[in-house]
Specification:
Layout (H helix, E strand, L loop, with lengths): L8 E2 L7 H15 L10 H7 L1 H6 L2 E5 L5 E6 L1 E3 L1 H9 L14 E4 L2 E2 L5 H12 L7 E10 L4 E10 L1
Parallel strand pairs: 5-7
Antiparallel strand pairs: 1-2, 2-3, 3-6, 4-5, 7-8
Function: Involved in fatty acylation of protoxin at internal lysine residues, thereby converting it to the active toxin.
Enzyme class: transferase
Main location: cytoplasm
Length: 159
């Protein structure tokens, strides 16, 4: 396994070139091929769950030493009401939600090669340090192939 602390992290300004954004989105699509959950997404889900992160600079994209994608994570700063609605499954995140409040919500973390814990530790250390002590939430999904459904699990962790 690659030591994530030694690899480059792309935390670009919001003014990505079209080519850079396309390359990273392509990398996210490659990562999704290795995730049973993300393979099920339709284009509209990707549009609402990752594109705003690129536009608002609320993402980290990880590559190995050969430039191959190994992980992606994004976050939104949502209001308490929106956070509660997202966690309950009442609705999905929309573009206007991404900077609607002070609560950190993780729409996507794709780390199909076993780097999830390292990504979280890196985010704590390099991205979310100003929010140290705050709770962060996400909804993880696990595919239940036998019943053709996704099982939602709310996860909280501290910065």
């Amino acid at each position: 396994m690659v030591d994530i602390g030694q690899m480059s992290i792309t935390h670009q300004p919001a003014n990505l070139t079209l080519a850079q954004m396309q390359q990273m989105i392509g990398g996210v699509m490659l990562l999704s091929q290795h995730s049973p959950l993300h393979r099920r997404y339709v284009v509209a889900e990707w549009q609402q769950r990752i594109l705003p992160a690129f536009e608002l600079n609320q993402f980290c994209y990880y590559e190995d030493e050969h430039g191959r994608p190994i992980a992606f994570c994004n976050w939104a700063f949502v209001s308490e009401q929106i956070r509660d609605e997202l966690l309950s499954g009442v609705r999905e995140i929309s573009p206007s939600d991404w900077r609607s409040g002070q609560h950190i919500y993780i729409p996507e973390m794709i780390a199909p090669f076993g780097h999830g814990r390292e990504v979280v530790n890196d985010l704590r250390r390099r991205v979310f340090l100003p929010w140290k002590g705050q709770k962060v939430c996400t909804v993880r999904g696990k595919v239940d192939a036998q019943n053709d459904r996704c099982i939602r699990k709310i996860q909280w962790f501290s910065i």
